[in-house]
Amino acid sequence: MSRPPSQHKIGRERLLAAVGVPIIGSAALVTLAPTSAVARPAYGAAGITWQACSRYAGAGFEGPRMDRMPRVRPLMARLECGTLRVPLNYDQPDGRKISIAVTRLPATDPAHRLGSLAVNPGGPGASGYLMPIKLIRRNPANAGLNERYDLIGFDPRGVGRSSRVDCPELRRTVAPPHGPLTEQAVRQAYARQVAANQACAKHDPAFLSHLTTANVARDLDQIRAALGETTISYLGTSWGTALGANYRSLFPTRVARMWLDSVMGPDFRLDAYGDTTAQAKELNFSRQAAWIAKRNARYGLGTTPETVKAAVLRLERAYDADPKRYAHAFIDGGMIARLASQASGHWALAAEALRALTNPPGPVASPALARIFETLNPPDASDGDDNVMFRATVCNEEAGRRDFASAWAAYQRRLARYPITSRHADPVPTCAGWPFPVQRWPLKAGGGSLQLSAHRYETTTPYVWAKQMQALIGGTVLTVDDDVHASAVQAPECAAHIVAYFDTGRPDAGRCPGAPEPPDAP
């Protein structure tokens, strides 16, 4: 993903904000043929030995330890944990093996059991190990999924309790300095990104070069086989939709029912993704500006959307010219643009911050403003969220341009077209300097029942991507009338559609309301 949907990662904003690419260094950029076109030796994993895992020692589950939460204890008592060994390289099934951590929450109505339902929260890099429990805890309606299905969670290769590699280099920031982004500053940040990516790639090249969505899909099929299932159902959000699409394309006869929410676009190019998301953010800010204008008595930013936009743009330029530090947050034009890029659940907080920053409280923020920034910039507490898995999977697969000139030109173009929200985007390509060949997604039509859900105003995975994916792989699109990433499992009305679909297998081309717009300021 994991975090609640509004904070969920594709998850990650830096994937969607990143631009462009040719590899810097001695390795040439190579695009491989779709992996589905290559005949692969068969591999059959041994079964999974299940054991109790009612005590969970990890942190980061939105508060205290899971096994101390009264509502969670009964679920933890039913949860089973296991490990599966799979090939690192499916072209060499007798070669190096890696471990995949798997969990199972058995169906509560085994007499009417329909099979296994694998779940994934997104990322790439988010842990799905405890997603069966998180899914139910997030929304009681989701418990209906567990009545007739064993819920299957897992950490993808490279994440959490599965085999993984650490890259200390990626924990160091490579972002440009605060204040206005000059070409020189961005060029220096670009050079740091190249150095970090190339240093990371040296830690375990064989492992890192095999972190791909298609290989995670192959691991998922080994989980299916080890469970003794002829087919498997699947629920994925964000990057989990790419995983589902890859699985359905590689193993079309092994899909029972599949739901993909907040769907990634099928043409995985970060430069093209950046253009689409930049447009979506600017359009969604028009909704946010209209909401703020209706509450001018409180926020004082303008009585029309146009005057609110002008006020925010003035703030961006003012704080770029004279950046400030308030509590733990550094405020420049990029932070103002971030406040203007919030989903509706955070509009009230963002407007409160914009109001306060229009009349600065001095060198130290008020406690209320400090709490706002803590809410909008939470510490990374997601369970098993792995930056190495994110970087490797994205950069092994994305086929956009990665050179500095293309990235800088794209940033300038977006800033001119979408001046309010584009200042928040990172102009440094995520994959600059990544040395491994590009492996494209092997997507194609066919393979079992498929339901997509797309969010009308969403900016992380814009609505149009679901339509593009549908045109390529098929399925039916349900429209969620909100702007909150991956919120279908959280909104009760939408969750009811999900439960009904997995019960009946009948796709739904209708609508559900999703997350509501916020009330007046908290």
Structural description of this entry:
This protein is of the alpha/beta class and about 525 residues long. The protein is built from 18 helices and 14 strands. The longest helix has 24 residues, at about 270-295.
Extract low-pLDDT stretches. 1-38, 57-64, 380-385
> Ends: how far apart?
27 Å
Within the largest sheet, what's the order of strands?
2-3-4-6-5-7-8-12-13-14
Structure classification? alpha/beta
Mean of residue pLDDT? 86
Q: Specify the number of helices.
A: 18
Number of strands: 14
Largest sheet: 10 strands, mixed
Shape: globular
Rg calculated over all Cα atoms: 23 Å
Instruction: State the share of residues found in helices, binned by percent.
Output: 25-40%
Q: What percent strand? A: 5-15%
Topology:
Elements lengths: L12 H5 L13 E2 L18 E2 L20 H6 L1 E8 L9 E9 L9 E6 L10 H8 L6 H4 E6 L28 H19 L3 H5 L3 H14 L5 E6 L1 H12 L4 E7 L8 H24 L2 H4 L5 H17 L2 E3 L2 E3 L1 H7 L7 H12 L8 H10 L10 H11 L6 H14 L20 E2 L9 E7 L7 H11 L2 E5 L11 H13 L6 E2 L10
Parallel strand pairs: 1-11, 5-6, 5-7, 7-8, 8-12, 12-13, 13-14
Antiparallel strand pairs: 2-3, 3-4, 4-6, 9-10
Identify the notable features of this structure and list them briefly.
single chain; 522 residues; alpha/beta; ten-stranded mixed beta sheet; two-stranded parallel sheet; 18 helices; 14 strands; 13% strand; globular; disordered N terminus
Would you summarize the structure shown here?
The strands form three sheets. The chain has a ten-stranded mixed sheet, with helices on both faces. The protein is α/β, with parallel strands linked by helices.
